[in-house]
Amino acid sequence: MKTVVRRYSGKGAKELFDLLEKQTADIEQLMRTVKGFVSYTLARSGDGGFSVTVCNDKAGVDESSQKAKDWLAKNAGSANASAPEVSEGSVILHLK
Fold this sequence. Notes:
Elements: E1 2-9, H1 13-22, H2 24-31, E2 37-45, E3 48-55, H3 58-75, E4 85-90
Antiparallel strand pairs: 1-3, 1-4, 2-3
């Protein structure tokens, strides 16, 4: 399995997560369409927040990142958030 973490902080990040919190049903519907989807977490932090996506393979995390980017461009441009810090890796342990 592969994972991608997208961390949003700085300018517009708090506003972005205020908006995301109101759109969780739409985000869930979008992320569940990713091929090889395993799990998705959206969490608020002190200065914004982060998402964690786990998929069966790299193609899935790449697809999730593109869908997230497209969704943000279409629905969250008013937040003017900076681009996220993105980390990808292979899953060592996944509990659920």
